[in-house]
Amino acid sequence: MRKDIPNQKEFSTQSTDYSYDEILSQSYKLVLNTDYYQLSDGLWVDRSEDDAYMKQVVEEALEVGWWVSSVLPRAARSNSISGSVGYTSQLMEYLIEQVNDSAIVKAQQDEPRPTSLPASPSRPAKRRSSLPLI
Question: Which residue has the higher pLDDT, 87 or 42?
C-alpha cells in the first residue's frame, strides 16, 4: 500500500474496530527508522520493502507493552478528534539514544558534510552521499 499511494494505484482497505481493553492487552514491537537500513557494499540500503528482512527486524525489535496514556477529549469540537496516544519521556529518551547509537547515524556523523537534500536544477549536487538522512 505504501508504494501504491504515490503511484496513484487503487488499493482497498479494511476497517477493524478494537475495544480499549483489546488495545491495552496487546504487546507491540518498537522498530526504529534506522532499522530499515542495512550496510551493503559500502552503501546504506533501505530494506523496508524486503519482507524477509523486515520480519527479522520485527522479531528482534524491543517488545513494549501498552503505552502510558491515551488522551480522549471530553467534548471534542470536531468529529475528527478521537484522542491521541502519549509516551513517557523515558521512552522518547530511549528512542533518541538508540537512533544516535545506530551504525547508520554514526556513519552519517563521521562522513564529512554529507549531502542530505536531493539535487535540483536550481541547486545542483556538488557531491552525493551514500547515506540517507535519518
Answer: 42
